[in-house]
Amino acid sequence: MPDQRESAFYVTTPIYYVTAPPSIGNAYTTVAADVLARWHRQRGEDVVFLTGTDEHGQKVLEAAEQNGVSPQDWADHLVATEWMPVLDIVDASNDDFIRTTERRHTVRVQEFWQTIHDAGDVYEGTYEGPYCIACEEFKLPAELFDGPDGVKLCPIHERPVETLSETNYFFALSKYADRLLALYADQPTFVQPESARNEVVAFVKQGLQDLSISRSTFAWGIPVPWDTEHVFYVWIDALLNYVTAAGFGTDSERFDRVWPADVQLVGKDILRFHAVIWPAMLMAAGVEVPRRVFAHGWLQVGGQKMSKSKATAIHPSEIVDTFGSDAYRYYFMRTITFGSDGNFSWEHMSAVYMSELANGLGNLASRVTAMVGKYFDGILPEPAALTAPERELVEKLAQVAARADEAIDRVAIHEAVTAVADFVGTINGYVTEQEPWRVAKDDSDEGRARLATTLYAAAESLRAVAVLHHAVLPKTAAALWSALGADAIGPLADQRVQDSGRWGQLPAGATLTKGASLFPRIVDEELARLRVEAGA
Ligand code: MSP
Predict the structure, then answer these.
(1) What atom in ligand 1 is closest to the CA of residue 238?
(2) Nearest atom (ligand 1) to Cα of 297
(3) Least CB-packed of 125, 148, 308, 335 within 10 Å?
(4) Facing residues of 299 across strands?
(5) What residues flank ligand 1, with Cβ below 6 Å?
(6) Closest protein CA for atom 24 of ligand 1
(7) Closest C-alpha residue for ligand 1 atom 29
(8) What is the secondary structure of 150-219 as a DSSP string?
(9) What one-character-per-residue DSSP string does 46-66 give?
(10) What are the two backbone dihedrals, phi and then psi, of residue 85, each rounded to the nearest 5 degrees?
């Protein structure tokens, strides 16, 4: 149910090129956006979470040609067989999926640029320079590096650039430099994290070049309305997806509710498009800029850059098939500082799975529910007076809930997940120290009361973990919620993170069930196979 905020919490991922199947790199942005979306829903906010595909341009055209099909057929095929299914694979809860070949987008792109054209910010000119098709971007000669035989290579894709020379339409980007610098100063969270902000400010301070916004050497794009010999440059078409999906130009009520976006997540390689070109386009059209553009780092595999040609690109399903979608999400959100580069290895994945999920949360939940089953016939007992160790737990829980919620506002996703993970460790430590299995041997009234208090405290702490881990571990949290008999409080989706730290919500009398283990131990042969694959 929507709460106090009048506007929606709008979170976006970049739209993905339909050139190849997704990798864990692309899915990283999607999972992070999904965690933010689920967290904000759990706050009771009206959330709009958008993702989609980027289907025009030379890069997609090349991929289609290599596969001997039309670009539209190629895009349809990859969307249906890869880009939609991967959302289920990683358990993304997006509210919409936009494709840039959809009419709801193409018509708006034409209108948007016609407006800027008519306002005088578009002119005809000629440009020649090095172009990287993989980035779909003109490069500055100084950015390139020398490959074998002195061939100039793109610093991101390490592949040769082409020299592109064309008479095109240009957007007068350079005249927005001062307004952009004022934006970065007035709205310090516009570009985050701080390192990304500094990079963007330094870049714009050097002065900006105008941007070529059309192409006439190929036709796979949205026609420029005032000169149909040209199609729009893919980036200035693609960036508009964020407003076209929000109802720009068609549904002003929805647009007012959804726009500006609260968080636009991007990888650091596409930061300048989002933090420089995108706000300048919006300024030129008189549209508000997003509240925050957050650049995350790049993932490597086993310390190496992922590359399709070297077959080091991992499809998310390879990991999900073994560990499940929750563990997949947990690994990337918990172990990598959001905003810094990160690494995936099978070894590390299985170590985190075993220690934090199977032996950590999974084992704790199964011990607690099993003991309530064994000592109280599965009915949660009324706790007696709390003693110092329970009071510590109560206090720690209130702090963790507040800290995690505050971290999410800074898009410090790893901090939020880690705070909750640490609390799971605290509960585990509490149970180990209290030794309820020993207390159970004492069947005096005091012994029974002590046992009741300990098991209640552990179960009630797990109730909060289910709410606080729901965003990152949706399936596990739902299973835990039902194992705790917490449906007696209400559905998990209605539990507010803001209230999750308040002690005493799980009612005595609730029915606990042990159920299947939350994180089945992966058998030794499976781990051995993964180690072999990892070359360890
Ligand atoms: N189509 C453009 C985005 C247009 S948005 C208006 C694009 N697409 S992409 O498919 O190449 O990349 C999409 C996202 O995946 C980017 O945020 C990029 O940073 C991310 N990643 C691709 N490989 C990655 C890693 N190895 N690690 C982390 N993220 C990476 O760019």
Answers:
(1) 6
(2) 28
(3) 148
(4) 342
(5) 14-17, 25-26, 28-29, 54, 238-239, 241, 266-267, 269-270, 298-299, 306
(6) 25
(7) 25
(8) G-EE-TTT-SB-EEEEEEEEEE-GGGGHHHHHHHHHHSTTSEESHHHHHHHHHHHHT----EE-EE-S--
(9) -EEEEEEEE--SHHHHHHHHH
(10) -60, -30
User: Beta-strand (E) ranges in 311-394?
Assistant: 342-344
Cα 190 to middle of ligand 1, angstroms: 20
Amino acid at 529: R
Per-residue pLDDT of the chain in tens (536 residues, 90 and over written 9) = 444 457 999 999 999 999 999 999 999 999 999 999 999 999 999 999 999 999 999 999 999 999 999 999 999 999 999 999 999 999 999 999 999 999 999 999 999 999 999 999 999 998 888 999 889 888 888 888 888 888 889 988 888 998 888 889 999 999 999 999 999 999 999 999 999 999 999 999 999 999 999 999 999 999 999 999 999 999 999 999 999 999 999 999 999 999 999 999 999 999 999 999 999 999 999 999 999 999 999 999 988 887 655 567 899 999 999 999 999 999 999 999 999 999 999 999 999 999 999 999 999 999 999 999 999 999 999 999 999 999 999 999 999 999 999 999 999 999 999 999 999 999 999 999 999 999 999 999 999 999 999 999 999 999 999 999 999 999 999 999 999 999 999 999 999 999 999 999 999 999 999 888 999 988 666 766 666 665 54
Kindly report whether the global pTM for this prediction surpasses the value 0.70.
yes
CA of 357 relative to ligand 1 center, distance in Å? 29
Question: Of all helices (H) and strands (E), which one includes residue 369?
Answer: helix 363-376
The count of other CB atoms within 10 Å of the CB of residue 475 is 15
Question: What is the atom index within ligand 1 of the atom nearest the CA of 266?
Answer: 17
Contact (Cβ atoms closer than 8 angstroms) between residue 462 and residue 391: no
Q: Whose CA is nearest to atom 6 of ligand 1?
A: 239
Ligand 1 center from residue 408 Cα (angstroms): 22
Q: Name the residue of 99, 270, 281 whose CB sits within 8 Å of the most ligand 1 atoms, as the mutation to test its pocket.
A: 270
Beta-bridge mates of residue 164: 129
Ligand 1 mean position to 26 CA, how many Å?
A: 5
Q: Which atom of ligand 1 is found nearest the CA of 265?
A: 17
Q: Whose CA is nearest to atom 9 of ligand 1?
A: 16
Residue partners of 199: CB distance under 8 A and separation at least 6: 271
| CA-nearest residue, atom 14 of ligand 1 | 26
DSSP 98: E
Between CA 240 and CA 123 the distance in angstroms is 20
Expressed in angstroms and rounded, the spacing between residue 268 Cα and the centre of ligand 1 is 9
